[in-house]
Amino acid sequence: MKNYARYSFWLETCGDDLTPRAPLDGSIDVDVAILGAGYTGLWTAYYLLKRQPSLRVAVVEAEIAGFGASGRNGGWCSAGFPVTAGELARRYGPERTRALLAAMRESVDEVGRVAEAEGLDIDYVKGGTLRIARGPHQEPMLDQALKTYERLGIAEQYTRLDAAQVAERVRITNVRGALYSPDCAVIHPGKLVRGLARVVERLGGTIYEQTRVTAFEPRQAGVPGSRPRLITERGDVRAEVVVLCGEAYLSRLPGLRRQLIPVYSLIVLTEPLSDAQWAEIGWENRETIGSHRFSVDYLSRTRDGRIVFGGRGAPYHFGSRIEDAYDRHEPTHQMLRRMTLEWFPMLRGIRFTHHWGGPLGMPRDWMPTMSYDRATGIATARGYTGQGVATSNLSGRVLADLICDTPSPLRVLPVIGHRSPDWEPEPLRWLGVRYVQRGFARLDEQAERTGRPPSGRSLVERLGRH
């Protein structure tokens, strides 16, 4: 049996039995068939079964619940969205932007509410988030973001901190200021995804693990009795509704290969720090922390006193290939270990006990999609670009509204029915993505070397990056 615990510290320490559940054994008929036992699939199953307990819901998973991004991320349950507030306002207008951002803030609280209601100990601590300016070149980005929030009328949800005020919370080298938002919690991702799986089963859903979906088919128009189906290596799952929730892994399915690309995000983890080391650092409120690097960094503090330091840097692979071996990229992991010590030099000599990674799903316009086509019977939610913990909860509620035809203000959010443009065919896709990846790294290096804001900011804004 595959050693699933090795894929991340979170699965290793979730306290759950990682022995795979039984696979599918022949074709079946259900009401709702869900591809993927990650956050999106499990949240969708949860809300459907809470609303209509009689539904026959089957969740089909290629590995085990939490194998993908849900069990490997950095522990942020954030109201942050892949597309910036300014770009959202440009695309959809201020009113719809405010509604979407409000729904994201609600989702952060909803994750905590459900965990408490269902008895899930997920290490949920809502300490907020600090988006720091580390160096003078990042300061203008703070002010630009705050001006955008002022134009949208939501600036009261953010607090501009100077360097001294940041140091009262956490002591990091070269910090010039930060924007603080209370709308973020730190969680244990493995405990959440494994706990949700148990709750779904308690509510009557069935999870089939070790069952790889190879294709899906919509309802055939004009064919009486036609039903959509998931096609697996162990039989078909026919249903009234098929829900596609495989995130980056959807890029393996015919018909979706160019809708998402897998982009790898990697993490390193320190050993537990001593009380004396934490006294030097601070960080008592366990805020999540990130800077304004284009290459992305994200930090959190675990309940047992470790530092999680994550970031991008691992290369995109030709043809959107996904392999277990790509979860580890030593140059990127070495960079993250070095950055940890640059941010916290008092930790010289600290041991790093774990490193891991995994693919996240990135659409061409960075905009998540949540949709249900009643005619074809196909629903989907995908494209979180690394912001999936709270967004997947929103997806589960939205898909339950759409499938059950429940009136809801969530049904008018700009993500509903959104269709991202396809990524370019290979080799143009590989050339373009690798060019952008190298470009982001060069922008960061140049800005850190010169202390001046990078000239590529407008390009990044158009891409939707925070």
The whole-number mean of residue pLDDT values reads: 94
> What is the straight-line distance between the termini?
40 Å
Shape: globular
Largest sheet: 6 strands, mixed
Strand order of the largest sheet: 9-3-2-13-20-19
Number of helical regions = 12
Q: What Rg is obtained from the alpha carbons, in whole angstroms?
A: 21 Å
Number of DSSP-assigned strands? 20
Strand content: 15-25%
Which class do the helix and strand fractions yield?
alpha/beta
Low-confidence stretches: 457-466
Task: Estimate percent helicity.
Answer: 25-40%
Features:
single chain; 466 residues; alpha/beta; six-stranded mixed beta sheet; four-stranded mixed beta sheet; 12 helices; 20 strands
General description of the model:
The chain starts with 8 loop residues before the first helix and ends with a helix. The protein has twelve helices and 20 strands. The strands form five sheets. A six-stranded mixed beta sheet has the order 9-3-2-13-20-19, with helices on one face. A hairpin with a 2-residue loop joins strand 11 (229-232) and strand 12. The protein is an alpha/beta fold. Helix 2 (39-51) packs parallel to helix 10 (388-404) and helix 3 packs across helix 4. Helices cover 33% and strands 21% of the residues.
